[in-house]
Design brief:
The complex is a heterodimer.
Chain A: E1 12-17, H1 21-28, E2 40-44, H2 54-61, E3 65-68, E4 79-82, E5 88-91, E6 97-100, H3 112-123, E7 127-131, H4 140-148, E8 152-156, H5 165-173, E9 178-180, H6 182-192
Parallel strand pairs in A: 1-2, 1-7, 2-4, 3-4, 7-8, 8-9
Antiparallel strand pairs in A: 5-6
Chain B: H1 5-21, H2 30-44, H3 49-58, H4 61-71, H5 81-95, E1 101-106, H6 112-123, E2 130-136, H7 139-147, E3 149-151, H8 155-164, E4 175-178, E5 181-184, E6 192-196, E7 208-213, H9 222-235, E8 236-244, E9 259-263, E10 268-271
Parallel strand pairs in B: 1-2, 1-7, 2-6, 7-8
Antiparallel strand pairs in B: 3-5, 4-5, 8-10, 9-10
Helix pairs in contact in B: 1-3
The chains are: A alpha/beta, B alpha/beta.
């Protein structure tokens, strides 16, 4: 059941992306209005030994706050949290963030599956999950879990993605997902604000 | 929203694990615990956590299996080489002023961090005057640490890390290769005491000059993190050092006033003189 019941307003958004992530996120995140008040958690696959500059980069371009997620941090609305390199990012039921050093999942740490599954537990039907461009299978299982928990699944149109494998795998795992272009995803998110 | 059945079952399982065997995971960060327990349930073929709990209650052999899932931790030697470089360049010169030293590797898991520090101390001429306490709650992990055997295919990374950490020797001086394993020299264990110790339920056991505890606290919830940091504070000698993982900090802790930043970027702290 991907349709969102009327009595469940969206509480949080998770985004997974890999190859081509920078361009895709550049369409979506800077377009969010300053009044946008949901938390957004983002996993982008980055090399383990690199200090990620994504948060800094987007903070300069966005109207909402953007930062790297910290362990045991209470979640604030209107903030984009990027997963840090070489750690998994998880959402706790008490609406705080945790990092973990568990083994990589599908060669990925941070893993999109790990974020999505923990967020599905924490938010249930209140979660919106976006799968964007990428060249592997990470996130497909997580998206399925989001749908099973009653959340909303949205996948970037594979044909329009820089790398189609990840959106294709996500659609195969969660066939009820809505498939939208980046532009449509951007408009959808801006629309949430008024709901 | 009513509590999910699975969440209730997990709470009961952790409560049972504590009451029956005194292993306390009730204050671990739950999202991670849940993920690991789900893995255990699937791979061990239990239809639900209640079935798993029944086995755990009546079959002590299940304990080790479950702990394997709950505490499994993969590390690297000299993980985050800049941390070990900072220990070498900014901490070792101070340790050199003491005639004898105690170092605690808390949550040593299968020993990668322990061997990294022993090798570093040998290179710095500090090993002979040091006792290393390597502790963990997982007996299997401690046995692995004591064996000092690592898959040979991991050694390329370990060697590269060691070099980046400012290593003064070649890592290959410390192990011999056989049957796909690197066997670390037993002399590296001359100064090491391996022991079962829990940061959750156990107390101070010696006065330390350096405590290294990396990527353990992130698995704890906030109150439990605070307990562990209090334990470190009580265990450290005046002006002793505490090294944490790169994403861990004392910032939110009640005990933060007891420490000052020593190498801020590497999360190395010094116990205040007071």
């Amino acid at each position: 059941m991907s349709a969102q019941p009327l009595n469940t307003p969206p509480e949080a958004i998770v985004i997974g992306a890999s190859a081509g992530a920078l361009e895709a996120l550049s369409v979506i995140l800077p377009a969010l209005p300053a009044t946008f008040d949901l938390p957004i958690f983002v996993v982008v696959h980055v090399p383990p030994d690199k200090k990620s500059i994504l948060a800094e980069l987007f903070d300069a371009k966005c109207k909402v706050k953007v930062r790297e997620a910290e362990d045991k941090e209470p979640i604030a609305g209107g903030t984009v949290y990027f997963a840090t390199a070489d750690y998994h990012l998880l959402v706790e039921a008490d609406k705080t963030l945790s990092l973990s050093n568990d083994e990589p999942v599908l060669y990925s740490r941070p893993s999109i599956d790990v974020l999505f599954e923990s967020a599905a537990d924490a938010y249930g039907p209140g979660l919106i999950a976006l799968m964007l461009t990428g060249a592997n299978q990470d996130g497909a299982q997580g998206l399925k879990t989001v749908v099973q928990a009653g959340g909303t699944a949205i996948v970037q149109t594979p044909e329009g993605a820089y790398a189609a494998a990840m959106p294709e795998a996500a659609i195969a795992a969660a066939p009820s997902a809505r498939v939208l272009s980046l532009k449509e995803i951007s408009l959808y998110l801006q629309g949430l604000e008024k709901a | 929203m009513p509590e999910k059945v699975e969440d209730i079952e997990i709470q009961l399982l952790l409560e049972g694990l504590y009451q029956r065997y005194h292993y306390d995971f009730r204050h671990y960060a739950q999202a991670s615990v849940k993920r690991r327990l789900r893995q255990a349930r699937e791979q061990l073929g239990f239809r639900n956590f209640s079935a798993m709990q029944e086995r755990l209650m009546h079959d002590p052999g299940m304990l080790g299996t479950l702990l394997g899932y709950l505490t499994v931790q993969v590390s690297e030697m000299f993980r985050d080489p800049t941390y070990f470089k900072a220990i070498r360049e900014k901490v070792a010169p101070h340790l050199r002023t003491y005639p004898s030293l105690k170092v605690w590797i808390a949550g040593c898991s299968s020993g990668e961090e322990l061997y990294s520090l022993v090798i570093l101390f040998r290179e710095e001429g500090l090993e002979d005057r040091t006792i290393f306490y390597a502790t963990d709650i997982n007996q299997d992990a401690l046995a692995k640490a004591e064996a000092g055997l690592y898959d040979l295919d991991r050694l390329k990374l370990f060697t590269e890390n060691h070099r980046k950490s400012g290593g003064k020797s070649s890592l290959s001086d410390y192990y011999s290769a056989a049957y796909g394993k690197a066997s670390f020299d037993r002399s590296l264990r001359n100064q090491v005491v391996f022991s079962d110790h829990s940061l959750v339920t156990d107390a101070v056991f010696a006065e330390m000059h350096l405590i290294s505890c990396r990527n353990v606290l992130i698995y704890f919830d906030r109150p439990l993190q605070d307990r562990a940091i209090g334990l470190f504070s009580d265990s450290l000698a005046r002006k002793g050092f505490l090294g944490l993982g790169s994403k861990e900090s004392l910032r939110f802790s009640d005990h933060s006033a007891a420490f000052t930043d020593w190498v801020r970027d590497e999360k190395i702290y010094q116990k205040s003189a007071a």
